[in-house]
Amino acid sequence: MAIDEELFKECLRRWTSGVTIVTSRSGDEIHGMTVSAFSSVSADPPLVLVCANRKSKTHAMIAESGIFNVHVLAEGQRELSNRFASTKLEGSRFDTVNYQMGRLGAPVIHGVLAVLECKLVSMHEEGSHTIYIGHVEHAETSDAAPLVYYQGAYRELSLS
Ligand SMILES: Cc1cc2nc3c(=O)[nH]c(=O)nc-3n(C[C@H](O)[C@H](O)[C@H](O)COP(=O)(O)O)c2cc1C
User: Fold this and answer.
1) How many CB atoms are closer than 10 A to CB 147?
2) Which of 41, 61, 62, 72 has the smallest C-beta neighbourhood within 10 Å, fewest atoms?
């Protein structure tokens, strides 16, 4: 028996996560979306996963290209997160954003906390989403506090 959908959502709202932007590229087209369903899978080999709604454009692009970059957002990047979640800005998300093409060919956004450039190694369709597992080929970090997501709102971590 399935649990009540609202109860399910209430449980998940109580899970604290970071916020990422996942980018990809297919031919001349670049794209990306905000993703909180990100996790490490394995350290050796270095694997991570992102969970993408099958209706999203980013989902289709990752399946097609086999590459994706994960950007861990820093505090102060709420607007960037909203920008990459906005359907209104779907065609112009990169317009005001500093980025360059990464080593695997997908966009790397500047000024984030960490970037992981991934090659797709497997995908698992479950429910409305696909779990994409990527092998991390290149990575970089910077030092700042993270952007946090909890109870449907952005938070800042008080580092003590
Ligand atoms: C904080 C936050 C977290 C999100 N996490 C996810 C996620 O983990 N997976 C997902 O498919 N969509 C997630 N979304 C929704 C997508 O960012 C949104 O639907 C986006 O418009 C999809 O873009 P696209 O269809 O242009 O690829 C999240 C949105 C926000 C604001």
Assistant:
1) 24
2) 41
**Distance (Å, whole) CA 134 – CA 103:** 15
For ligand 1, whether the C-beta of 33 sits within 6 Å is yes
- Identify the CATH number of the domain defined by range 19-154: 2.30.110.10
Check if 149 has its Cβ closer than 6 Å to any atom of ligand 1. yes
- Looking from the CA of residue 58, the nearest atom of ligand 1 is 27
Amino acid at 127: G
- Is the Cβ atom of 68 under 6 angstroms away from ligand 1? no
Q: Would you list the domain boundaries of the chain?
A: 19-154
Place of tokens 């500093």: 98
- Residue at 143: amino acid letter: D
Tens digits of residue pLDDT in 87-112: 999 999 999 999 999 999 999 999 99
